[in-house]
Amino acid sequence: MGAFQEFEIVRSFSLPVFLVPFLPFIASIITLIFGKRYFPERPYILPVSALFLSFILSLYLLFEVLSGKIYQFDLFTWISAGNLKVGLGFLVDPLSVMMLCMVTSLSFLIHVYSIGYMKGDPGYYRFFAYISLFTFFMLMLVLSNNLVQLYLGWEGVGLCSYLLIGFWYEKKRASDAAKKAFIINRVGDFGFALGIFAVFYYLGTLYYDEIIPKLSVLKDVYLGIGSYEVHVPFLIAFLLFCGAMGKSAQFPLHTWLPDAMEGPTPVSALIHAATMVTAGVFMVARLHALFEMSEYAMAMVAFVGAFTSFMAATIAITQFDIKRVIAYSTLSQLGYMFMACGVGAFAVGMFHLFTHAYFKALLFLSAGSIIHALHHAVDPNDIRIMGGLRKYMPITFVTFLIAGLAISGVPGFAGFFSKDEILAHAFFSKYPWGKFIWLIGIIIAVMTAFYTFRVFFKAFFGEFRGREALHGHEPHESPKVMTIPLIIISIGAIFSGWLGIPEVLGGGAHFQKFLEKVVGHPELVGVDHTVEYFLMAISVLAGILGIGFAYLIYVKKPALETLGPSKFPRIYRFLYRKWYFDELYHYLFVVPTFWLSRTVVNLILDTFIIDHTVNGSARTTETSANLLRKVHTGLINHYIWFILFGIIIYLIYYIYIR
Amino acid sequence: MSSLPLLSLILWFPLVGILSILFTPRNRENLIKTIALVTAIVDFLFSLCLLLNFDFQNSGFQFVEKSEWLSIINSSYYLGVDGVSILFIPLSTLVTVLCVLISWDSITEKVKEFYLALLFTNIAMIGVFVSLDLLLFYIFWEALLIPMYLIIGIWGGPRRIYSTIKFFLYTFFGSIFMLVAIIYIFLQYGTFEYTALLGKNYPTHIERFLFLAFLIAFAVKVPMWPVHTWLPDAHTEAPTAGSVILAGILIKLGGYGMIRFLLPLFPNATLYFANLILILSVIAIIYAGLACLWQSDLKRLIAYSSVSHMGFITLGIFSLNPIGLKGAILQMINHGIVTGALFMCVGVIYDRTHSRAISHYGGLATTFPFYAGLFMIFTLASIGLPGTNGFVGEFLILQGVFLRDKLFSALGATGVIIGACYMLWLYQRVFFEKPSPNVFNLPPLKWNELIALLPMVILVFLIGLYPSLLLDFMKGSVFMILNHFMNIGGS
Amino acid sequence: MIPFEYYVYLSLLLFCIGLVGVMLRRNLIILLVSLEIMMNALIVLFSAISRYSNDTTGYVVVFFLIALAAAEAGVGLSLVVLLYRSLKKIYTEDINYYRG
Predict the structure, then answer these.
(1) What value of ipTM does the predicted structure carry?
(2) CA distance A143 to C4
(3) CATH level 3 topology of C26-98
(4) Global model pTM greater than 0.95
(5) Of A631, A633, A637, which is closest to C22 when you measure between CB atoms?
(6) Taking CB atoms and an 8 Å limit, are A197 and B432 in contact across chains?
């Protein structure tokens, strides 16, 4: 953050900054408490207008930051004990203001979309309350100026994600998925919390602007764990990255995200594609200085990202649930962002995060539009019952196509610029694994284009296959309240990439330059432009190739579709069952835990060992008491005899022995 | 205010209620309840006065009262509070108010005796927290057992006799050792006065024995692993009010005792045994957490979760640094609020369906949504979601322990994961999925239940978002207690 | 003058009579009477001591003891009567409810 000198830092309370997160919060609380009773028909009024205001305020803040202002202040001291002091505060700098605009704009549009999508649901008011609450926590996360508040937002969005995945809680699968999401995120947060503790232990502060300058202290600090000496920056980066793995669904904590698709589609678009799941990338970018201190940490980020990206892409090819395909593509794209971070191109990672938010939200919302059209079917998410929807849903067709082209990296669309930047930076990276990452990136690009257009062709081309499933209902285009947000977002999906057109294409890379001041940006100096053009051509080709394959298999020669599964049934099953991760975790963690709980804890230890020791001593007491009770005859006369004997014995003792 | 003996007033005010109830005919149940409620509320207001008059600059004892009592053995009526104990007094009086409210309709037999026992509990609870004379402390400590024994044994569930005897034997067994230690200290120094005993040095092995004697008493109360098995039984069979007192105050006595007596009186032994206790705490956290997973009884599950949470508290106390210790004290208050509220919530549905089996329920979120929302808030506070009070306590404790030993902090933090597992699973089984046939047409929340639960919701968020409200009280006293360690050269 | 020892012997004799009565008899009224006899032994002893040592403290104690004996007889007998009324029993072996 050394580059902050050129900014004017505002350290006093600023109302617009405060209002951006708290407007949705107030709207959410009022809707939650009074929505059911007083405005069950129109619970969206407050959240939507609050979000709109937040969006306007974020734009205002964007211009403030562009004009060289940074806000950094505490609302009040939250936790203070000993020398630990943490406030609830805000930091508005280029990084957070960019997230702010992205979150509020998308959240606003998705709120509007949900007005149509969720209409008639018994939990209409609840949905808007939760999703506004989510926006609040997400904004708190983004605006935080210290790690504990980041954690507040982090767990808060997790909570809202839990509530929204389990929105239709009467379905067992939904409530299972909600629980799974929360618990797996908790596993990540466990590491994240330890990372926070470690930061405080070594640096004595939890504020970003104090952490960053102090980091150099850690340069040669090692911690002995067993017989290993662990470099402390790596340790902290690893622990914090655990949180990112949970929240951004990276291997090995990725299994919750596909299941999270049980939630309503707008939720999937907002939370599980555009905003919450990118929090991990945001955190890594925010603390990039820490990660850059350790080569191992960077390699970890890069390879975890690459592996997740590759794995998710392979799984996405085989899935039939439209939302799951998109969910795996989200996993894959998040992996891409981490790959960018792992080669040191944090600003580019953030750029991809930004463009991805728009085109992925668009993809999800278009899918939602299809699901809405098919909602009479038992499983409206199944791409096997779709087909030929181009005729019925022209607007959705166009928006889905735009999103698909964007994610495939077709020139001119948003995804092209960010993806290409990532690949270029990977190739020219100073890290030795850069070339490898580039290669993986190209392979993934092919697969991405392929599975996206597989869904596209299956859904919109050919004949409509869902007549039986729909019981005679015809699919129809969605109402305006849904299509208009789709159209607006598709503008974002095309043009958001234009903010960061690289210099080689004659652009100014404004986006990267804007973030550079916070997250740094490796310049591609001394790089031959021809090489760059060549790389660009390869990545474009990769995208086209994927689309071409999909066209060949799913439109031209549908017979080829079953070729893969029948030729390689093992591999196909392996991919279709998602690399068996769910089963693996079930047998690795769930079963042993329950066994431990049931057998060791409850049956053996508590009942047999601890209680029997105690009850055993009780039994000894009881037996001896049974012997002694014989003496208690209840007759006064006997007691007097005892007294007499006592006196006699005492006298004998007194007279003869003493 | 200094002229008014505020502590004695708070301590003995419930006697007014007790006497009035004694002279009320037993068939006028509403009058009895009202008297109990008014007494409890007035006592609570008095304790708020105490908070308002607290002097934040003074790290020693305040509101001190001292008069001759058993002068023959040099024991005096010596009361006072400092930053550690002061927060427990409003908590105790608040818990009494809640217990009166929550028992309003659920206790139908022997109403008079029940409220007498409840008010007597109130006296004993406050007595433990305010006495600065070891003998007086011991007397209140044991006196609390009697009404608790009666509350569980008379108004409890079907297996109440077994539970009460177990409860009594465990706790009494522990306290006997403390009595021996107290007598030994008296024989050595000729005084029971807490302040006079500070800074005394004992021979090493004597100090360790005294430490262990006190520790046994406190460990049983906390309860620490492996002497915890009385708690699930007692909780399961106790009436709602009994559970609330157990969770809210009674098991806090152990933690309070540790902070008040073990740390300042036996600092060397504390350092010597600290790691042992940290190990036991970590075992308690994980072990009880795992035990929760397999419970089929609502109250038993929450009782085991108490054991797990109390593990966090002992962990914080023996981190022996201000962050951990403050976290532990705060967490004691938090746990009293959250677990007390959870028990009240369970009481609410128990009163309606008369079943504690988790499998009896399902889909309550559909049929009883407002209640589901309340339960959700307490569940989240229990698993330590940021923004609720549970987070602040757990965060401070784990941070404090991290400063002392990274491994214990990491192991303790696994408890947070397990906590999320069992609480969310519980929530899923009780509130989500298709409604079970047993949960339709439940009567809505009654006024007394609402009045008892809503303040808890407010406290959950108030402490969660502005913990300085409570942390400021502890500042000086925590420093005083840990000061002994700085002098000795501890961590 | 009668020697002091005689009083002591008398007192011991009375005490032993009372003690034997308490130890052997089962009738509650007899038990009470035996207790009274033991008390009388004490009274005799105290007055003798007081007389021979010229100290009035003994007499004071005697007055207390007489009052105590009267009270004891009153309370004891009324308890016995009550017991008899409700249980129709007067022998100790029939009312040993505190047998362990």
Answers:
(1) 0.88
(2) 105
(3) Helix Hairpins (1.10.287)
(4) no
(5) A637
(6) no
